[in-house]
Amino acid sequence: MDQLSAMRAFVRVVQTGSFSAAGRDMHTTQTTISKKVAALENHIGVKLLTRSSRDHALTQAGAEYYETCVNLLGELDEAEARARSDIALPRGVLRITAPVAFGRLLLAPIISEFFSRYPDIQVDLLLSDKHVDLISDGIDVAIRARQLEDSTLIARHLFNNNMLVLASPDYFEQFGKPITPNDLQQHNCLAYAGMKTVNTWRFYDDDKEITVPVKGNFQSDNGDVLLEVALSGLGLVLLPIWMVKPYLESGQLVQVLANYTGQDIPFNAIYPHSRYTPLKVRCFVDFLKEKLAQCEALTL
């Protein structure tokens, strides 16, 4: 058995989601991929995948072995690249996950420049506002607006998410404007359901933290939906500057509580920890930091 070939087949099955997709990706058949994975399981004496007629899932041992395989194969690929003096030419498929609005507004406008710099990299972009597991979903880089919670991952800070409280002029004409954060309790607040503290908004007056319990008749786990609902005049919303800047400039949304500092949530690029970070990952994260530092949408 060619163990390296079998390990690559196993990794691609996990990353692509099926034996047939892995076969297409590796220019071979589903049967060949299945045989390679079965031979690998037989060789190490552990079941890596539970199979059904329509699906498969990693076993606990399989999840741990997958992470090991990804790290080992990444180090091997980079060692080979160094030996070929090809380290300056990153290549391969880069799987990225990011929030929907971030992908639409900040990533899409700059991705063509990334390809101009690195023509041998192919990008597979998964946009979702839900938490995606890097290991089970075969993700190379995740863009997340949260603190790093897993010590097996590395976080590279991209920017602080400057959050603003806004509503449409029609809403304020009907219900008035809040003057202090505590006034929000008398307003219809549109909540982002993707946060653990969905009904709590935080502000800072100098060094003093103000925690406000808010309530409203609508919440969503999608920022774009909250933006559209706020534009319709339903209520107040807490959104980052880069999502709302054009609507502030056009007058379709009006900021309130500008004298109070909102909670800044760090945006990070997160990727699995390994001895050698794949060159394609390093190039993408460095590129993203560079372009976001120049992005006018991140500031008022």
List keywords for this structure.
single chain; 300 residues; alpha/beta; Arc Repressor Mutant, subunit A; D-Maltodextrin-Binding Protein, domain 2; 5-stranded mixed beta sheet; 15 strands; 25% strand; DNA binding; transcription; LysR family transcriptional regulator; DNA-binding
Task: Walk me through what this model shows.
- With 300 residues, this protein is an alpha/beta fold.
- Strand 1 (49-51) and strand 2 form a beta hairpin.
- The mean pLDDT is 87.
- It has helices spanning 3-16, 19-25, 30-44, 60-83, 100-107, 111-117, 169-175, 223-231, 241-250, 279-293; strands spanning 49-51, 56-58, 92-98, 121-127, 141-145, 153-161, 163-167, 189-192, 200-205, 208-213, 219-220, 236-240, 254-256, 261-262, 265-272.
- The protein is elongated, with a radius of gyration of 23 Å.
- It is 39% helix and 25% strand.
- A five-stranded mixed sheet has the order 4-3-5-15-6. It has a five-stranded mixed sheet with strand order 11-8-12-7-13. A three-stranded antiparallel sheet has the order 10-9-14, with no helix packed on it.
